[in-house]
Amino acid sequence: MAEQAKPQSAAQREVARNIAIHDKVAGQYEKLHGEIFNTIEQSRLRASLQSALDSVETGRTPPHAFDFGCGSGNLTAHLLALGAKVTAADVSRGFLDLVSKRFGGELLQTFQLNGRDLSEIADGSFDLVATYSVLHHIPDYLDACRELARITAPGGVVVIDHEASPASWTDPILAEFRSNGMRTDWRKFLTPMNYVHRLKRVFNPKHSNEGDIHVWPDDHIEWNKIAETMGGGGMSVIREEDYLLSRSLQRLDAYEQYRDRCNDTRVTVYRKQR
After folding, report:
1. Where is the Methyltransferase type domain (predicted)?
2. pLDDT score of 24
């Protein structure tokens, strides 16, 4: 008699749901995320990654970068353009196929994550490890951080970007900006599935269109715990920056008025002791 499969844990169910959703939206991802794919954010991101690469002290050329949760290739595109060799990694085969098609070449390889750990990757394999808008999708994000530190070579750098800053839920100036600085997205009223998701949020206020996320005042990543975890892996902070994320529906004049007065997003860069 065939052995019955063990029931999935809650975390495994969350990962499976995230994979299914991201496989489905892979080809539309960039159209859905104007807060990522806009000129201001892409310019900031390119400069941030250049700074991170300049901080690598492993001595290897070209540096080998690991794009953890690569999605449609946002970081991968920049890292390749900046001269790095890149391993683009994601749980979604749909995203990996898209990245291979877009950027395939001798400096790119892809790696399908197992949704649990990075045990298939040896210690110290990479000169730079970068993750962008990913940790809030991972139920045990601290274990993920331990793994990111482990696979980084001595003198190598870890970049954690596009995660909510501590001020995101508490700053009254930010709340003022959100109230006054946004344009109405009329397209959302023409998308039938938005009404389905809206109904689901009546019963579960934390329901998200794109899988399980942890971006709520009572359920979010904690930067102090990340710092402790990375420190345990021999990493120390070399740069930390809070910034106001540019979104496609923001009024540009309002964004320019508020960008130096408030923030909602953080990037932190760590370097591993040699």
Report:
1. 67-160
2. 55
